[in-house]
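Schema walkthrough. Field components (list of strings):
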Amino acid sequence: MNVELLFDPLFLWPCLTGMVFALLLPLCGAYLRLRGEWLAALSYAQMAAAGGLGAMALGWPLALGGPAAAFLAAGVKNVFEEAAESVRGAAYAMLLLAGWGVAVLLAANLPLAERLGHALSDGQLYFTDQGHFFAALGALAVALPALAGLSRPLLLSHFYPDFYRARGRSARRLHLAFDLLVAGVLALATTGIGVMAAFALVFIPPLAAAPWAGSWRRALVLGGGLGVFAHLLAFALALVLDQPYGPVLALLLVALGAGSALLAQGHSRIAK
Amino acid sequence: MMLLQATGLVAGYGRPVVGPVDIALHRGEVLGLAGPNGAGKSTLLAALAGSVRCFAGSILRAPGVALSWQTQRQPAVAGIPLNGRELLALTGAAPAGLPPWLASRLEERLDRLSGGQLQFLHLWACLQAPAEVILLDEPTNNLDPDGVAALAAAIAQRAAAGAGILLVSHDERFVTATCQRQVLLKGAAES
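Field assembly_structure (string):
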């Protein structure tokens, strides 16, 4: 155990990079959860990992392959926009499996891809630098105003789809814009913190926040806060205990989510 | 002033369900659509909102007229942390004028409201949205007598302010008390 590592300037940029994603991903997750599309997040992240590996195999820049594959997944998902929920769920699962299959095959057949494959899957936050941080900050600067602008239309089209259509607006275009935004954020996050850590940050903080927030706005603030709290704790624990960051974060978030669900269940029993 | 006019309208999904129908809605008017189950009342509303296929006829909407449409589809609210005030803000409906039994619960989450309160809130969100033409489909569903009375008052107030309201309801007493005119639908004519 080495507590001094916490104050090593070497780990400042990784910590800050993770913090940006820990704030941003739960915000995206809140809208994915609203639409019952949290599984889509995992398929974007997995496709981004496969895209990164594919780019490497083709000699293209890694930063191009991940987002391109994630955008492709968002486009495919949009084809199923009008389909039943079960069909859409099946489409996300197939995208996820396709991404996983391509990633594992590439990793198995190219020696360098194997190392990168592990890095993308498990996360390589400790190896992120100032460049990663500013890329994440750029994503935050684009995504926050975009989400603020998309929030009301997304909620309106969810609660009143007929009203939304009757006003002459296209829900399909709106959802494509949101999907591309989320795909881009997840592709970037995957290269920084890995597939499963990114997915955990999308899925669990909004889930854990939902029972305790009295409004949508408070749920967003609480979800983002839980994400940042879990990241800081996971970062410190992983560093001090010399463990990989991704699994520590995922386990902490699972504990947080399970604790929130149990407390909410108890709370609702008492209220009845 | 005419807000909306349908002439010889035949509408439906794979095949015609309603029509031919001639209908005109004027500013300040509350018009009721009556007819047996399956006559195509909801389909006609959907056609006027541009949401189903029109096989024949025409629909004219006065320039610049915005439309608000309340359907029977109730969105799932369980587990979603949205409160009543936020819901009304989505459609741009002002909460001023809500009956006291609902106004006092605006800060509550939607999944903590009763079925009737939630139905009234959905109605209010569509009825008070900035729009000149308002389409209401079975608005009295799930409402108790207080809710029905409050709805009738809100419809009258909205029409007095210049909106044209077209409503479908099985509640004959409500339709008679609320609407100035009724149109009887008989379903699609056999070809």
